[in-house]
Design a protein that fits this description.
Elements lengths: L8 E4 L10 H11 L8 E3 L4 E4 H4 L3 E4 L5 H10 L2 E4 L10 H8 L4 E2 L9 H5 L6 E3 L10 H7 L3 E2 L6 H16 L2 H9 L19
Parallel strand pairs: 4-5, 4-6, 6-7, 7-8
Antiparallel strand pairs: 1-3, 2-3
């Protein structure tokens, strides 16, 4: 990919759209997936994608779920054209609604568990990518996406420390019999110190 240092360039805040780990790969894949006539010119650097302003304004992102406000702010600053598709209570769109909406998008940004079947992928021959907002990607028909030449990304490792925290929480709760003690207390049977039954053991032993 060759950048034009003389063109007016815009640093896209959208690098943080899909979390720092996944974004460079996703954006680079989008660029290489464009056909020759509409290929974006830009470079990937440590801070994000640098791209010409006229081209970036033509990029349309479909977010078919209730993305939290922090994510919406990032999208707003990125200057991308974003469409949100969900019910007033955050309900996900039906398959039919998603198929119709994706026809007007360049990139689909579904939530981690939202199904993206073949019907959605084939609805738009110009779809440039699917950026799954989650660690997994089993909700996306990756086989069909590969066949159609559509890049699919996820957010690997974003929940690694979170999972580790919860694992430690479970270990300590088990060692110190926290669930049993809680149940005993809320049952109304607690009247004072009960001694050994709920002492548990040190988590380091």
């Amino acid at each position: 990919m060759v950048g034009n240092p003389e063109s007016k360039r815009l640093k896209v805040a959208a690098l943080n759209l899909f979390y720092p780990t996944a974004s460079p790969f996703f954006l680079k894949a989008m660029l290489s997936n464009c056909d020759t006539a509409s290929r974006w010119e830009g470079i990937i650097d440590m801070d994000g994608l640098v791209i010409d302003e006229q081209t970036i304004m033509a990029s349309r992102i479909l977010v078919p779920w209730a993305l939290p406000e922090a994510g919406r702010e990032v999208l707003k600053k990125s200057k991308l054209r974003v469409t949100y598709l969900h019910g007033p209570g955050g309900e996900l769109p039906t398959l039919e609604e998603l198929v119709q909406a994706v026809k007007k998008a360049d990139v689909l940004l579904p939530r981690g568990t939202q199904p993206v079947p073949r019907e959605v992928l084939v609805a738009n021959p110009a779809l440039r990518g699917v950026a799954n907002h989650g660690v997994g990607y089993d909700s996306v028909d990756v086989v069909s996406a590969t066949e159609l030449g559509i890049p699919v990304t996820n957010t690997p490792d974003i929940l690694t420390e979170t999972t580790a925290d919860l694992a430690w929480g479970l270990l300590i709760a088990t060692a110190r019999k926290i669930p049993q003690t809680h149940n005993f207390t809320v049952s109304g049977r607690f009247t004072g110190p009960v001694g050994h039954p709920f002492m548990g053991m040190d988590s380091t032993k």
